[in-house]
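Archive record
______________

***
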Amino acid sequence: QVQLVESGGRLVQAGGSLRLSCAASGRTFSNYGMGWFRQAPGKEREFVAAISWSAGRSYYANSVKGRFTISRDNAKNTVYLQMNSLKPEDTAVYYCAADHLGGGVGLTTASNYDVWGQGTQVTVSS
């Protein structure tokens, strides 16, 4: 089973960019579908983006489509979330997660994920 550690979150001004990283331990990382979720204060955790084990398919929430890009480097056991044109409403704790099933539209559902990271705070100031 993999373990996940996120990094890259910080304070940024609206319109700026950030790249989040999620480093995974474990030899089976390449078998896992990977996702990013976020949770703002007082709100439920929501899906942001996901990528299949082979990187052949990716999925995005409507709220981030065209601004965020998910990618993965299986050789480095790392998944990334490039976030551009950030808005104050993107402020949240961002979580990386791994799904052993590897792919499909189920990657958009938090309950399908087996492993979660501890989260990294992203704050976008107006």
